[in-house]
Amino acid sequence: MSEEEDSEDPLREILNELGELPPIEIGFERLLRGYATLDFETGEIRPVKSFQEWAQWMENASRHICYDEVSGFIVSTVFLGVNHRFYVKGKPLWFETMVFRQDAAGLRKPTQDYGQFRYSTIEEARAGHKAAVEAVGKGEIGE
Predict the structure, then answer these.
(1) 42-50: long-range contacts (C-beta < 8 A, 24 or more apart)?
(2) Domain map of the chain by residue range?
(3) pLDDT band for position 132 (50/70/90)?
């Protein structure tokens, strides 16, 4: 980029005026607290020691806790691997149940979800999944 082009870029001008900004110090260990793996046998959520450990586990693990097809809907509960309790205090949210409408081929329609519920423990996730299946069956969730 020539000096002339550089001076015409408004973002570049703002950055030049600001000068060098100090780096944001989050702390690697603090950042890793939001990532975990799951022992499916015990339900234990295990903190990871590195992003590489987490990524390898996520790539190789089946994260489904429960899956049901009910009345033209799919109810799916998974371990997220990332704490979805963002910016507010409370128990971490590691699990999620979602309800999707099935298409004619029995596949989920990705643009239509009819419910999203998050949980802290595998026990809560299983109970929440069961409740969602029952609600779909009664017509309380869905069309």
Answers:
(1) 43/121, 43/122, 43/123, 45/92, 45/94, 45/121
(2) 28-138
(3) very high
